[in-house]
Amino acid sequence: MQALVIDPAAHEPVYGQIARQLREAIASGTLAPGRALPAVRTVAGDLGVNLNTVARAYRQLQDEGFLEITERAGARVAAPSEGSSRERLDPLRRDLRTALARLRQAGVPVPDLKKMLEAELAALGGRRRG
Amino acid sequence: MQALVIDPAAHEPVYGQIARQLREAIASGTLAPGRALPAVRTVAGDLGVNLNTVARAYRQLQDEGFLEITERAGARVAAPSEGSSRERLDPLRRDLRTALARLRQAGVPVPDLKKMLEAELAALGGRRRG
Amino acid sequence: MQALVIDPAAHEPVYGQIARQLREAIASGTLAPGRALPAVRTVAGDLGVNLNTVARAYRQLQDEGFLEITERAGARVAAPSEGSSRERLDPLRRDLRTALARLRQAGVPVPDLKKMLEAELAALGGRRRG
Amino acid sequence: MQALVIDPAAHEPVYGQIARQLREAIASGTLAPGRALPAVRTVAGDLGVNLNTVARAYRQLQDEGFLEITERAGARVAAPSEGSSRERLDPLRRDLRTALARLRQAGVPVPDLKKMLEAELAALGGRRRG
DNA sequence: GTGGTCTAGACCACG
DNA sequence: GTGGTCTAGACCACC
Description:
homotetramer, mainly alpha, Arc Repressor Mutant, subunit A, two-stranded antiparallel sheet, 5 helices, 55% helix, DNA-binding
């Protein structure tokens, strides 16, 4: 996969940058379900950040369902869930609504927004099923 | 419009709750462009929150392009922009991608995701143009 | 209440020592429900430990139901719950069983164990209800 | 005795799962004092875990006074002690107090707590004396 | 060799 | 003024 790129001066926290890039790689299928991720200390050494910073990114992705972490076997890419409760989905849908509203207000016409969404969905759809 | 509902004990900050509800009302057209919003002190009094909290929500919506604030005339709903630079759009699109990936991983199948997006877009499309 | 006593060299972590002493004060009624606890920075200053260490103790007691924490109002002693699911109780009961078995094996005869338990229950029963 | 059940993915460490189940079997009398336990390598083979993991569980139970381990004769269930110093008992009693306080706060009324304790004591009392 | 804990200090969010 | 975040370093638990 493409190497992680970190900007320590960015407003986005380092652990968030790591989590986001891994999330997109998983969602796009670049990192297929079942694949093992490098150890936190390895990533931390490569990026020049603390071990805990990487561990936090991994744990967040675990909470979001993107990774399965076991203490001894390390972290592996998880298969997507096959159904979820409304309680879990509601805040995610709220974030989606906010993102769409901001894009529209920032000047993206609705037809362009539709094309943008189709492109994003195509990237998701190309993902391999576990 | 529907009255604002605030939960002071929620994890989401109070100013965020105010901003989110106003943003959705604007995006859906419930609050049409040009319409004047109640004064900060009025809203603060009605909700029983600090004046600065409401002011912060207004300021955020101004930064996002949803409101136009002038010292004398107060806050009015802004018309959506008619074009925007990639620099402004990129972080918003990144948030959109994150929201979609989380929903997919949480168990929403891609076809359901499509329907969800159409519903959200329809709500946006019903909005009156400034 | 009695001042907290910390031994930085003890095997028990500092945050655990703080949590345990506060827990016992709450369980015994020394700290009554509704009572406000000192701010984390105050306690941290008094004990000479980091703010996060105290905050962690407070958060653990919140998770156990002993405290109610709100960002702006600080921490207050909570009233005991009025019923709980078996899922939550099972691990607690397992800890109780382990504690009893260890005491018995360490040489406390069952009759003495009974007296010990009655004494502990009396301390709990003397607690004021919220 | 009932076979040991291990969940490698559980939060509780494997050696702790083994120790806990053996401890309960000894405390309840299912494993009587003097009885020989299977060899470490036997248990490890049956459970499919590392030999050191089982050895650690045995060693912990030895430290707690539940087992007597000799190099030649292996591990045997120990008789309960007939008296112990306050220094050894105090931390055990502290754990007992913590367990009771948590149960009470989690919603178990004091009368129910009493019944729970009587049941646990009865299980202990049924144990055969060495 | 894996992930995790514990404490810390600087800084931030919130009202 | 409140609690919380973010990153860090040393050390630990586990197998």
